[in-house]
Every structure is written in C-alpha cells, then in structure tokens.
Amino acid sequence: MKCSSDYVSQNMNSNFSPLLLFQLLKNMGLRYVVFRIWYALQQKTGWLKIRFPKHADQKEFITLNKWRNLPVLFFKMKEKQNGELFKNQNFDTLKEHVLAIHQNKFLYFSSVYYKNTDWHTNPETGFKYNQSQHWSNIPDFSQEAGDIKYVWEISRFTFLYDLIRYDFHFQDDQSVLVFSKIESWIDANPVNCGPNWKCSQEITLRVLNWTFALQYYKNSPNLTEQIFNKIINSIYKQMQHVEQNINFSRIAVRNNHVITETLGLYVIGLLYPFFPESNRWKKKGKKWFEEEISYQIYEDGTFLQFSMNYHRVVVQLLTWAIASAEINGEQWSETIYDRAKKSVQFLRTCQDDKTGWLPNYGNNDGALFFPLTDCHFRDFRPQLGALADLLNMDLGYKTGLWQEEMFWIGIHESKESAREFGDACILSSSHSSFPLISAFPKSGYYILRETNTITFLRCGTYENRPFQADNLHLDIWVDGENILRDAGSYKYNTDEKWSRYFMGTASHNTVMLDDHDQMRKGSGFIWYDWIKKGKGRWRKIEEGTKDAVFEGEFEGFRQLGKGIKHRRKVKKKIGRLYWEVEDWIENAPAEMMMNQLWHPSEIFFEQFSIQAFDENDDEISLSISPGWYSGFYGEKEESKQVTFSSNKRYIRTVIKKVTG
C-alpha cells in the first residue's frame, strides 16, 4: 500500500507520448487525471502547506473521568475471562516479540527485527528524514532515503498488540511502555511535519491502534489527565488531516487506502463523540465506506486489487466495521454483510487446509494491521475466522491459535469458545461446503480443490488498474506445500531490475515472449496496454470421469503487435498428483522465443518431475536458472527458475509425483 502523490508527474517525462497519455485517460478516466494534475499543482505552488498548517493549538475536549464514563462500547476484550481457554498455549512467539520491544527492537513486516533509534530513520538505509519538513515536500520515492515503508512500519503501532496481549495473558502491566511510546511519537512528529504525516492510511491505522490501546487501558492509573489530553489532541489533528485529504484516496488511489480512511472516520466519530466534527465524520465515513466496499469488492467476493494480502486487509477492516457498529446498536447496509460473507467464501476457497496459507498472489507489502495471535503472517485463519464468527459462518476450522483474534474482536460467544486454545494451528482436512471446482469470473480466479491439493489459476481482464502482469499464472499446492508458486512482491521502492521482475510476468508460472511482459510497464505502479480480452472456464466434470480441465485465453503483449493471444489448458487427473499444461501462442512475431516459466519450491524436485514437449511431441530441454522468491516484504532469496523455450508456438508440460 503506497501513497504515491506524484503518480502523474512521474509519468509526464520525455518518454511520455500522447498515445500513453490517451491510454492513461482511457484507463483511469478524466476525473482521475484532472485531479492528479490539480493535486500536483497544489503541491508545487505550496497550497498544500496552507491547507495543512504545521502548528496546532491544544484543545480541551473532555475530562478523563467523563470519557471513562461515556456509554460508548468497544470490543469486549477485558470483559472476557481467559480461564482455561489458553492454558495449553506457551506464547513463545509473543514472549520473543515483547522482549525485543523492551530492548527497543521491533519486528518489521512480520519478518525482520530492527533497532529503533527514532521515528524518522529508515533502519535499512540509515537515512533520517527531517521531522520539521512539511509532509507535502517529502518524496514518495527517493533512492537516497530508500523505501519509506520502513519508516511508516513502526509508526503504525501494530506492536501495541503484542504488549496488550502480553499484559492480558501474563497479567504483567505494560501501560507505562505503551503510553511512553505514544507520547514519544507525538513529541517527535509535529502536526503535518515529517514522513509520518504523508499518508492518510498510515495516519488512520495509527489512530485505530492507539484507540485499541486507550480502550484496553481505559481505567489504568498510568493513564493520567495529561497523557490523555495529549493523545486525544493528536488523534483529533490526525483525523482532521484524514478528512481534509480524503479526496486523494477517494479519487486518485481508490483501493484499500480509502476503505481504511473512511472506516477510520466512522470509528473515530463513533467512539469520540465529543470532537466537533465527530457527527460529520461518522456519517460521511459510513456512507463512503459502504460506497467503497460496494465498488471494490465485486459481486462474486473478489477484490479489485487482485491481491490475497490486500484482500485480507479489507477483511480486517470489515471485521472492525461490523463489530464496532453492532456492539453500539448500529447496522450497515446489506451490501456490507453480503460482500463480507462473499469475501470470506472466496478467500477460504483459495486456502490451503494444512497451513491456512493462500497463494502468494498479487502485491504483498507485509500488511497485517491488527495482529492478535501467534500464527504465522501467511496464515489467514485468524482474520477469516474472526469475520466468519461475526457473520455466523462455519469455515470448517478446528480449534487452534487462530481463535485468539476471534476472542479479542468477537461480540458474541463462538461455538468453539468453550474449547481450550492449544498450540496446534490445524484445519479440518476438507470442508463439505467447498465444491470440487470453483470459478470467480468477475476477477478471473479458477480453483480446483481436492482432499490434499489445490490447483489455482487466474485468467481475466482489467476494469481497474492492474498491479502485476500475471495472467494465466498457475499455483499448485500438495499436502500444504506450494510446489509451484508465485515469487511474491519483494519491495515497492527498489531497483528497476527487481521491480520489473517481481511485478512482471517473469516471476509467475506462465508464458513470456522473449523477455517481454504481458503488458507494457510504466514507471512506479503504472501498466499500459491493459488486458481487455480474457476469459476462462472449467469444463463440466461428468460423474465418473478422471480429469478436471481448465481452459483460458487472453490477448496481450500489445507492445509487440495486435491480436497476440496466449491460450492455456490445464488438465488435472482427479485423485492423482498429475497435471498436464498446454500453452499456445498465436500471432506473435516469428523471431521471438516462447518461454514457459515455472517457479518450484525447494522440495519440488525431491518428489515431482516436470517435462515439456513441442507440437511434434519432441521433448524440450529443461533449463534451470537463478530465480527469486519473496515470502516477506523486503526480503528475497535465490531460488530455481525452470524455463522451457521453443521457437514454435506450442508447449505441453507434464507435472507429476515421482516418489512415495
């Protein structure tokens, strides 16, 4: 999730042709382009500095005692009794995180610890931002500074959940440290100054996480009048900023950013009724949130960002929305509950039963807004389980660590709440509500689920902006192992080589022509020549047949010529670890090689074989070259990349189990 305020200016360079401008207008719309230009003018003329002044007076909103007695309800948290519920959980991961925090080390993107020296230094590059510089003068992309997300990550305050959970489970008061960190941030980040005021989504997340901490420690003796007023004033100014800049997200970004920000307006308006703007924030936030969920979550439950991790972000936001409204006697429109339920159904359909993981598909920036369990970052059970509990859905999960998130956020007792939470995070081996084959044609997802395997494909068109060039990518899971996988995202602000690899076609299990992507790459997050003609389908599986067959095709590679088509057929033998993949390329330049790419897991060649053949059934030699895999944001490791190359226009590939 990146707030790129200079999106248009990045592309208005010497290589930006009238044809590309036409594509930008056609794809994004006149309103979008005009707004971007207008916003860039505000930035260059200094008007944003006037709209968002640096200095702010302290206000007296409410006394601490009056606030403590407000009849506003939040998640029930401390009202619940831990009792026997957690007795078999050792919380080793939680202990490790909290020990590190007390040593001023923090976990970034759920993967790497960095020492925190201040709120403005990028721990990866050592670059320190100017904390007195107006946020509008800070660039999104800077080679010297590095990825700004490394500064934003600590300022989200997701680490507060580790401290709060530790406090609860071990009855070890962490309030002094919690409030000292919040105070430290406020002192170091004057209003509208520095990188931490640049992105409204980051601001909103910080405010929501502070709110969780305030509610948990509502009656703590360490929450003094002085600390309370300081925090409340900062929350107020931050949400003023969010409202005043909301059109940037509503018009120029329109993805999970605006869902976060509009929910923030609603929740803060609901829980802080003493702010002068609270009634307006609540009403507008609710209206806009409903509009965005209706627009961004399609009728089949898929999400316009084509990203599993970003879809989980929206699941968490929906959970906050539904729980906070319902516990305060409010309701959302029926669309909210419908899209929430369908989102859970879609993601659960794609979920591996053994691990709880989903394909590493689409942009994955390490986002996990409200971490409330010790489960692995890639395990979606905590978030899907919590929302499903609110919606009275049965996902077929067994008891495990994942339930703790439901415990913190749920507003009613779950059917599973009487069971103790052990260390095992396991699912039932299968769930009867999932059909053998599933299709989500709006976004172009096609899934085949058997007892121990998942065959996952995507083939579709783009009505909204694409983030990766990955059509007809194939993911295969066997017994919890992602044997053929998506290489991930790595970083958003990195060298062009890595950006093109991880965002482009090369990091996916599909076909390239020479080294050309399926669409034309622009700067930043821009793609041109959006794929507009694409379709897929499962053939109906007749009773007693042994094969499931997927057929898909799209027109792409527009930068190389008109009418170039990639067709793919995937045949899976039911009940056997055997896949046959056929690829055809039509109307491509004759001199270009057809390259079929595969990204196997580390254990692939221990248990599986892969062979390819051309149209004459002659075997194509297998080429293994260095590839890359990114399981966490900011990390990459060398892995194997398998390539089958042909100067013809057909490749048939067989993938099968060879051991056991």
What are the salient characteristics of this protein?
7-stranded antiparallel beta sheet; Glycosyltransferase; Beta-galactosidase, Chain A, domain 5; 35% helix; single chain; 660 residues; 2 domains; alpha+beta
Describe this structure in words.
This protein has 660 residues and is α+β, with helices and mostly antiparallel strands. The chain has 2 domains: 7-296, Glycosyltransferase, CATH 1.50.10; 437-657, Beta-galactosidase, Chain A, domain 5, CATH 2.70.98.70. 35% of the residues lie in helices and 17% in strands. The strands form 5 sheets. It has a 7-stranded antiparallel beta sheet with strand order 11-12-13-14-20-16-17. Strand 3 (437-440) and strand 4 (445-449) form a beta hairpin.
Summarize the structure.
Helices cover 35% and strands 17% of the residues.
Low-confidence stretches: 5-14, 414-432
Strand content: 15-25%
Assembly category: single chain
Mean pLDDT: 91
Provide the spatial order of strands within the biggest beta sheet.
11-12-13-14-20-16-17
Individual helix count: 20
Shape: globular
Blueprint of the fold:
Blueprint: H1 7-11, H2 18-28, H3 30-45, H4 47-51, H5 64-68, H6 92-102, E1 105-108, E2 112-115, H7 149-155, H8 160-170, H9 175-188, H10 200-216, H11 225-244, H12 246-253, H13 256-271, H14 278-296, H15 308-327, H16 334-349, H17 381-390, H18 403-409, E3 437-440, E4 445-449, E5 453-458, E6 473-478, E7 481-484, H19 496-503, E8 511-513, E9 520-521, E10 527-528, E11 534-538, E12 547-555, E13 565-573, E14 578-586, E15 594-598, H20 604-607, E16 608-613, E17 619-620, E18 623-629, E19 637-646, E20 650-657
Antiparallel strand pairs: 1-2, 3-4, 4-5, 5-6, 6-7, 8-15, 9-10, 11-12, 12-13, 13-14, 14-20, 15-19, 16-17, 16-20, 18-19
Helix pairs in contact: 2-3, 6-8, 9-11, 10-11, 10-13, 12-13, 13-14, 13-15, 15-16, 15-17, 17-18
